Structures are given as structure tokens and as C-alpha cells.
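Propose amino acids for all 392 sites.
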């Protein structure tokens, strides 16, 4: 199985190319970690570290057992005005008016045809003020297009995001702002913190399935990003915190069943196709895509796939009775489960009377080798989300 573990590095899952930084944003934190061995990717027109060329398994276990720092490229958008709630209720599939100030939640926007246009985290800063932390792709113009006639301003706050993740992450947060009662700072809560004399927005969220929080810059005065990085790193030294790249975070997000827009999901899929129908609220008067979603097939087509001998990887076909029934959207080796895991998207939902869960299928890898595999529920680990809630 050592050969399988060697294939685990995310940085090698796609070919690397040289690219000029024109029209793309380099991270303001990059001077603190970038070396000749750093491989960057591009997401929301922002560069972010995919790999530092270091041992992935070792750093994976450090994330699971201690705490790690990640520079991530998600892009917050600022939505403010007396009609902000009206706009957001119009665009998103769940109710936004019920979101309380100081709280965050997961929110999906759909096309008029019912496909997923964007997913991300909605944060309510005030009655008329929100931040939406979008995934990869263009979304600011989408919001503007649906704001006609409304008293609302949509802008880019130029915020950059850091994630501190792992069982000791809240110890780091306590060290960063000793005036805050961290024990009362719950899962998906949001608030402003003082870190080294700079005001930042912090949310109890993350992309690893572990306990953690995110730090958003440019909340008020312009942030000194290099000083903020040093402040966070200094606070984390006592707890053994190190910084890592996406290849470490990527394994955990798959184990946790977290989806990545434009990689695992896109606008050809409805929320029902990908198991997110619970985030569609048909009790709302109207929202973009409602009519199409009311008529859409409500069956799920995205599930987990495990294999003891093969590692599911992007584009691999999955077969039943020598017929292709699905394709792998993303996959990796799970150090915790000690098997290959991935997301399978089926050609069509299971026919009435058949459940995909537990079905034995054949995974065909890139070398055309065939591997026994099994369909399982997502997530692969911690279905009750006890880890990020601090209950495990």
C-alpha cells in the first residue's frame, strides 16, 4: 500500500505550468512562506499555495492532532444597504432574513435553470450588512445583476483569509485575543477580534472538518498583513502550530464530505443532485431557480466511494456489470481510514427501489486497472460534525 500513499500529493494531480501574475492577485502573506519549492494554484483570480514540497502525511496528522495555519483564497463580498436582505433572499435558496447578526451559515445560489451557480458562507455583520465568502468563480456581477431597483451596494472588501485548524486551534485563538470569552464563541459564530492591535473578523468555520476558525483582514483600517501573520504565528508557537498548503487541507475536506465548487460541483448540477436539498427552502415566496427546482428530480447522484486497493482520482470511471454508471469527481488516500476514498457522481439517480449505498462497483484507475469498491454515505468521517463543534 506504500505505492498508493506515494500518489497522495495533490500538487501532482494536475500538470503545473508557468504563469505570469498579471490580472491575478498574489497573497499578501506569500513573503512569509514562499520558496522555490512552493507550487501555487489560482482560485477566484487569487494565488494560493498548493504544495510546499513537504511530507503530506506528517502534516496531515499534525492537523488532526494539533493545529495548522493555512493561507486560503476564498473571496468575501460585501453586501450593504436597506435592501440587502431583499436581494439575498432573491438570489439564495435558503432564507437569509432569519440569519442573526454575528452568525454565519452555508448558502447556495442557483441559476434560473436550477443549477448551482455558487456556494459559500454567509455572514451577517449588522441588520443591513453581510459578507458572502464565495467559492471559485465570478459572483459579484451576478449579485449586481439582480440588484436592479434595490438600495444595496455590492463591493469587494479586498479581504484575505487565513484558516487556523485542528484540535488546538481555539487555544491559539485564546492566546490571540485574551479579552474574548472563547468558550462562548460557538460553531458558525462570527465576531471582530483584536490581533496585535489590528481589528479582524473571525468565524468559527473552516474547510477541514476539524475544529478551527478563519481570520478575515481589512475590517476597518487597511490591514498590515505581514504583521498579522507574525502575530498569529507567534501565538501558535506554544501549541506547535505550523503552516501548510492545500494538499494537506484537501485530504481532510474529502474525508469530511466538504464540496469544492468548480471541482466537485458546478452549474450543471442541482442542489438535489449533490445531496444539498436541505439548503433549498421552498417556503420562500420566490428565489432564482425556484420553479426549476420544484420540478427537478429530487434524487441524489453524489456519494462516497471507497476502495482497499485503488485510489479514486479525478475522471476515473466506475462500472457496474461492465457498464459505466458514474465518474470520480475528486479522490485521495485516507490516512485515517487507510483506504482510497473519493466522490462518485452517478450518470443518473438510482432507479426507484434501488439504493446506491452499499452497492459494490468496479473502479477503473488511470492505468486501466480494476479495483473493487463500495458506495458509502458522505461524509466518510464524523457524520455528526462533532469535531468542528468541539464535541469529540
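Proposal:
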Amino acid at each position: 500500500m506504500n505505492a498508493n500513499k506515494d500518489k497522495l500529493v495533490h500538487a501532482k494531480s494536475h500538470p503545473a505550468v508557468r504563469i505570469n501574475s498579471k490580472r491575478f492577485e498574489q497573497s499578501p502573506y506569500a513573503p512569509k512562506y514562499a520558496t522555490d519549492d512552493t507550487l501555487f494554484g489560482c482560485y477566484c483570480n487569487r494565488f494560493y499555495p498548493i504544495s510546499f514540497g513537504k511530507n503530506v502525511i506528517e502534516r496531515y496528522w499534525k492537523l488532526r492532532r494539533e493545529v495548522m495555519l493555512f493561507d486560503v483564497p476564498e473571496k468575501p463580498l460585501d453586501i450593504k444597504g436597506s435592501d440587502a436582505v431583499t436581494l439575498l433572499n432573491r438570489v439564495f435558496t435558503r432564507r437569509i432574513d432569519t440569519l442573526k447578526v454575528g452568525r454565519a451559515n452555508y448558502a447556495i445560489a442557483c441559476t434560473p435553470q436550477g443549477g448551482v451557480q455558487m456556494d459559500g458562507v454567509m455572514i451577517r455583520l449588522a441588520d443591513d450588512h453581510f459578507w458572502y465568502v464565495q467559492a471559485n468563480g465570478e459572483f459579484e456581477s451576478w449579485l449586481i445583476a439582480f440588484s436592479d431597483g434595490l438600495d444595496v451596494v455590492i463591493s469587494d472588501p479586498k479581504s484575505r483569509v487565513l484558516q487556523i485548524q485542528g484540535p488546538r486551534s481555539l487555544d491559539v485563538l485564546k492566546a490571540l485575543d485574551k479579552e474574548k470569552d472563547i468558550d462562548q464563541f460557538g460553531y458558525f459564530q462570527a465576531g471582530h477580534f483584536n490581533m496585535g492591535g489590528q481589528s479582524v473578523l473571525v468565524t468559527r468555520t473552516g474547510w477541514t472538518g476539524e475544529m478551527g476558525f478563519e481570520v478575515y483582514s481589512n475590517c476597518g483600517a487597511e490591514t498590515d498583513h505581514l504583521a498579522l501573520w507574525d502575530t498569529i504565528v507567534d501565538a501558535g508557537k506554544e501549541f506547535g502550530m505550523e503552516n501548510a498548503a492545500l494538499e494537506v487541507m484537501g485530504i481532510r475536506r474529502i474525508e469530511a464530505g466538504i464540496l469544492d465548487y468548480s471541482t466537485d460541483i458546478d452549474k450543471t448540477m442541482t442542489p438535489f443532485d449533490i445531496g444539498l436539498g436541505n439548503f433549498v427552502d421552498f417556503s420562500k415566496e420566490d428565489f432564482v431557480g425556484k420553479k426549476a427546482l420544484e420540478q427537478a428530480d429530487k434524487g441524489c447522484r453524489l456519494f462516497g466511494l471507497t476502495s482497499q486497493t485503488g485510489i479514486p482520482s479525478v475522471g476515473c470511471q466506475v462500472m457496474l456489470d461492465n457498464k459505466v454508471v458514474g465518474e470520480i469527481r475528486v479522490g485521495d488516500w485516507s490516512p485515517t481510514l487507510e483506504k482510497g476514498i473519493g466522490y462518485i457522481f452517478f450518470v443518473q439517480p438510482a432507479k426507484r427501489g434501488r439504493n446506491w449505498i452499499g452497492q459494490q462497483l468496479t473502479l477503473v484507475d488511470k492505468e486501466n486497472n480494476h479495483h473493487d469498491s463500495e458506495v458509502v454515505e458522505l461524509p466518510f468521517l464524523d457524520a455528526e460534525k462533532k469535531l468542528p463543534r468541539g464535541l469529540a
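Residues 1-11 have pLDDT under 50 and may be disordered. The two ends are 29 Å apart (CA to CA).
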